[in-house]
Amino acid sequence: MPLASLPNVPSDPDWARSFTGTKDIPYYIDNIDDKIVPEIQKLLVEYSGVSPEDVRQHIYDIRDKAWAIRSYPCTGIGIWLKPNLPKFPIYPRLLEILKHGGSLLDVGCFIGHDLRRLAFDGAPSDRIFAVDIVNHWELGYEMFRDADRFSAHFVEADILHPNQSLEAMKQTLDVITMLSLLHQWDWDGQVFALQEVAALLRPIAGSLAVGYQVGTVGQNLIPASALAKTDCYWHNPETLSKMWDQVGERTGSKWICESEMKTWEEMGWEPKDTEYLGQDARMILWVAKRSE
Fold first, then answer.
1. What strand order describes the sheet that includes 281-290?
2. pLDDT at 4
3. How far apart are alpha carbons 286 and 40 in whole angstroms?
4. pLDDT digits (tens, 9 = 90+) for 189-228
5. Mean pLDDT rounded to a whole number for the chain
6. How far apart are CA 148 and CA 36, in angstroms?
7. Largest Cα span, the chain
8. Which of 108, 109, 111, 176 could form a disulfide with 130 if both were Cys (CB 3.0 to 4.6 A apart)?
9. For residues 168 and 285, what is the distance between their CA atoms, to the nearest angstrom?
10. Each residue of 255-292: pLDDT tens digit?
11. Distances, alpha carbon 104 to alpha carbons 139, 195, 255, 272, in Å
12. What pLDDT does residue 5 have?
């Protein structure tokens, strides 16, 4: 049975709006040159047509514009510059699904950086959908210079309060990705969001949800702080599987969730960039597949 009402969790967290006017916080790093890895350079040069000598300044200009919209840690640290979706072993399968007419929705898409990698790797962009509560989409076109050829469909909407456009997509999608998103909510907020994800996917075995977020090898409930401002729930593989079991019970479906914890080094990130999260923090990558 679905939750009777939406939990008291913010759809657009206060911390994402509170620090846009300052860069004097732990997760804004002035120099992100180490995040300008060969993959993003190749994408910007070969896909976007940015001159190699202009790549660095182009990235810094876009980062400042994105920060002025919302002060996301991924923006301030520069993590979004390192391709993350291709780190999943299932990535070739996602490309195959799209190339054979399937559809993919990215929830919390930001500027659509992971979606551009899909397009660069041969996925037809007209089978790609994107949703975010805040519109960074036009900035994505500025970043990747592809407004004339990137045909993905953007919906400005809230996954916790679906609008008509999002409601119309229910039971139509083959894959949903949620990257650096779930960790901003507590348990109930995450369950509610995943119920909406389950409702958007086709109600058949094989539908996929793919994501990653901050996880932990320590305590799961992270109390509100001066930075986070609200309670958050960080998973380990066991708790994430339990959550998908609960989602299945509430939606009349069954899911097999496989997940893996990774250190910052294994993700290709600098541990010092995320010291503010504490020594127990890790990243957890997961794939949930509907079994019935």
1. 153-156, 128-132, 104-107, 175-179, 208-216, 281-290, 255-262
2. 44
3. 23
4. 999 999 999 999 999 999 999 999 999 999 998 887 766 6
5. 93
6. 25
7. 56
8. 109
9. 29
10. 999 999 999 999 988 899 989 899 999 999 999 999 98
11. 21, 17, 18, 34
12. 55
Nearest to 227 by CA among 83, 4, 8, 22: 22
pTM exceeds cut of 0.70: yes
Taking only the tens place, the pLDDT of each residue in 3-51 is 445 656 667 776 677 777 888 888 999 999 999 999 999 999 999 999 9
Q: Are strands 255-262 and 281-290 parallel, antiparallel or unpaired?
A: antiparallel
Residue located via tokens 């250190």? 263
